[in-house]
Design brief:
By secondary structure, this protein is mainly α. Helix content is 69%, strand content 0%.
């Protein structure tokens, strides 16, 4: 993250700290003192990914850790800030190519 601007670094750090909350682009932009359209454009230009994609990646990485700790799926959904169980399953499979059960079985 050293190669990114201060705003993008702060946004990424905030997402890594607050991934368990129901935060989105607007909340993140407000928390770092900029507007959402500017942050969205800048973040995508610098990282090649959207704020939502980055936040989902952080959430999936955290959920993978919790899966290895045998935390129940419903709790993982809640602790990682996903809106619903169905959305968690969709995003997890999109990012890992596996369902949570396949991930655990395969030694993810």
């Amino acid at each position: 993250t050293e190669r990114y601007s201060g705003l993008v670094r702060r946004a990424a750090e905030l997402m890594e700290q607050r991934y368990g909350e129901h935060v989105g682009l607007r909340e993140i932009a407000g928390a770092i003192g900029t507007n959402s359209s500017y942050l969205s454009r800048l973040f995508h230009e610098e990282t090649g990914t959207t704020v939502t994609e980055y936040l989902n990646r952080v959430r999936v990485e955290q959920s993978k850790k919790l899966l290895h700790e045998d935390v129940p799926l419903k709790e993982i959904v809640h602790r990682c800030g996903f809106r619903s169980y169905g959305y968690f399953l969709k995003i997890f499979k999109e990012y890992t190519g596996k369902t949570p059960k396949e991930f655990v079985r395969g030694g993810g």
